[in-house]
Design goal:
Elements (H helix, E strand, L loop, with lengths): L6 E9 L5 H9 L17 E7 L2 E7 L9 H16 L2 E7 L6 H10 L7 E7 L6 H14 L5 E3 L8 H11 L17 H17 L7 E10 L5 E9 L2 H8 L4 H18 L3 E9 L7 H7 L9
Parallel strand pairs: 1-3, 1-4, 4-5, 5-6, 8-9
Antiparallel strand pairs: 2-3, 7-8
Helix pairs in contact: 6-8
Amino acid sequence: MTDTQTRAGFVALIGEPNAGKSTLTNRMVGAKVSIVTHKVQTTRARIRGVALEGASQLVFVDTPGLFKPTRRLDRAMVAAAWDGAADADVVVLMIEANRGVTEGVERILEGLQGFGENRKIALAINKIDRIKSEALLALSEKMNEIYPFVATFMISAERGHGVDALKEWLAGEVPEGPWLYPEDQIADLPLRMIAAEMTREKLTLRLHQELPYQLTVETEAWEERKDGSCKIDQLIYVMRDGHKGIVLGNKGETIKAVGKAAREELVEFLGRKVHLFLQVKVRPNWLEESERYDEMGLNFKDGNS
């Protein structure tokens, strides 16, 4: 293909926490590149998933959920989300059909007002199976009265309804030009960070409300072995001694279960044998350490109040 026949561009998915952005990214890409849990604010770094649609390459920027920030980490996450939207060729605002126009959605719509008329911003109403069609149409009309979206899509990211239509539309909206990544690449995050995100997801799912957002995972070492397998050493940072006990669990049961689940997913993702070793460390001030933000792909300075 010549450069003029191909298209490539960045697509930013924005919305409130839990709007379904990570689920949509993974479905578009056809593989798991973004952390998905029932808990809000789980996506920290701007994860880029790469998808192909005909002659177009779509690079999805799965931004952290937009919410009212209170802590340094929150502020850095929100700044990353807006930066991702500002840098994208196309922006898709995702809202939950069953929640409608919330205060959070209203804040996002206010933020979009400063993007200018030339920016392509579409609306994707997700979880359409949760409300009646009459209410869905009314919500679409209300949203388009508030902001002039270039297109509106009714989707279910989890079930796949309407996703193909959105993907096809995006393929025609990104700029003409050469592809930005090799054809077989599905994400531009370093494998070390993807591995850390997978372990953090398993911790989040396992611990539920016990340890909301006061932990982070870093891949400390990655060793390629001669037999084709790899050895991965990860550190789980928590803020208090009591948290360490929660992560370890009774007789180490929790950390063993988390390690097993994370290793199995890494084996599937990498397509080879993985030796995963987890260690828990107490760092009371990790939320104020710039190195932790670098590991998460966030800007430490953006967290300043």
